[in-house]
Amino acid sequence: MPRLFLILGDQLHPDPHPLLVDFDPARDRLLMIEAAEESTHVWSHQARSALFLAAMRQRAAAFRAAGLALTYRQLGEHPHATIAAALIADIGDARRVVMLEAGDYRLQQAIQAACASAGVMLETRPDPHFLCSLAEFAAWAGDKTNLRLEFFYRWQRKRHGILMAGNEPVGGQWNFDADNRQSFGRQGPGLLPPPAHFAPDALTRSAIADVERHFPGHPGSTARFGWPVTTEQARAALDDFITHRLPEFGRWQDAMWSGQPFLWHSLLSTALNLKLLDPRTVIAATVAAYESGRVPLAAAEGFIRQILGWREFVRGVYGRQMPALAEANQYGHSTPLPTWYWTGRTHAACLAAAIGQTLEHGYAHHIQRLMITGNFALLAGLHPRQVADWYLAVYVDAVAWVEEPNTLGMALNAWPGMTSKPYCASGAYIDRMSDYCRSCRYNPKTRVGPGSCPFTTLYWDFLARHRDRFAANPRMAMPLKNLDRLGDTELTAIRHQATSLRADLDGV
């Protein structure tokens, strides 16, 4: 039975590619497809589209160099807008399509429907890239309605034997938050090691040119493009991070600073999410750096928690909760996305900085996403679906399985099953963790009146509006206690000002 092996744009695993373990060149064919819909179903950042196309073309070149016969459908060189339509057009005499499970529920459903309508069998295989399969996650989750990273992370550490001393964690504790997540203070981050940058070669430049030609009106820019697009580059980026930035990563992982988009962060999420880099390789290099004394335990553990813990956790949540997760909206929020989410032209210095660097690089680190753009969206009551689509569109590392749970479950708390409380904060948090407030027209310390910080006003209004909902949550006890200290007059003023803010968010 002739088979058609389909490799998607985020399935660019190193050799030996796991989909091809039983590929028979005498009877089977290999197919890769570039399709416009993957850049248009959300209004994708030009750098995001360029990254996917460049990495796909580089992987295709490697397949050909290895002697594999590959059909590659390039953007603009075939008439089909969707992967599903292009796949069916290329079926030929194949009676079975073989693929790894897609990281996007929308795309998996479209391929399944297309194969069914064409009368072709579809074989979907688990993706061995992950250290926890969807079946294993489902077994761990069982019938729980509330899923928590901490319990999942400990389970992962134990079963994979990572940073373990027998049955106990190395260092005697599971996490080192007390040592991590510090702010820079007024002195700032000091001298920072620049991250690895990979100058685009001819193949990558062709992808960038195609994106600029086919999607000229899309947000962002490709001018600063320097992401790894091959496994070799991804491993070089890993080595650079381990050597130059991981030792300080833990302490400063939540800090922010004007004009410094990368700080001590790894910038490996693009390579990991495209599967150019195996997470086992990343974890092994991190453990080796700790065991050799080059990296403190707090930094190694904090980074491993992101890879072994959070990344695997959100993927499990996505596989378990879709499609209902996509429409989650527990607060009933419906306010449209302000236009400055697409331009960065806002008076709030923190938002302008986070969105500005996002448009320039296609990147913002996790606290900028969670506690700046996400925090504002939650407090202002922005429509979760619009916000989730924005996150999927503007970040170069965005794939549905990671972006949807992070946005809808964590940042917006639209689905309450993966965090024990909403991640919301006033301007005081932003002031403590960054220098943004120093150059801002808004005062993070004031709740009402001219010049008061929108984050601060909206934060207290959010608590007040949902006080009854949070009353039984022990983790919200302190914020509610502080809310109760506000007098009726000030609370009324806060609610009036918050209503005015939400009525004209484009003016923030």
Structural notes for this entry:
This protein has 508 residues and is mainly alpha-helical. The chain is 48% helix and 5% strand. It has 22 helices and 7 strands. The chain has helices spanning 37-40, 46-65, 83-89, 105-118, 134-141, 149-160, 202-214, 231-244, 246-252, 269-273, 279-291, 297-321, 340-343, 349-361, 366-380, 384-394, 400-411, 427-433, 454-465, 467-470, 477-484, 488-503, and strands at 3-6, 29-33, 70-73, 96-100, 121-125, 164-165, 168-169. The strands form 2 sheets. The chain has a 5-stranded parallel β-sheet with strand order 3-2-1-4-5, with helices on both faces. It has a two-stranded antiparallel ribbon with strand order 6-7. α3 (83-89) packs parallel to α4 (105-118), α8 packs parallel to α11 and α11 packs antiparallel against α12. It is globular. The mean pLDDT is 97.
What topology emerges from the helices and strands here?
Blueprint: E1 3-6, E2 29-33, H1 37-40, H2 46-65, E3 70-73, H3 83-89, E4 96-100, H4 105-118, E5 121-125, H5 134-141, H6 149-160, E6 164-165, E7 168-169, H7 202-214, H8 231-244, H9 246-252, H10 269-273, H11 279-291, H12 297-321, H13 340-343, H14 349-361, H15 366-380, H16 384-394, H17 400-411, H18 427-433, H19 454-465, H20 467-470, H21 477-484, H22 488-503
Parallel strand pairs: 1-2, 1-4, 2-3, 4-5
Antiparallel strand pairs: 6-7
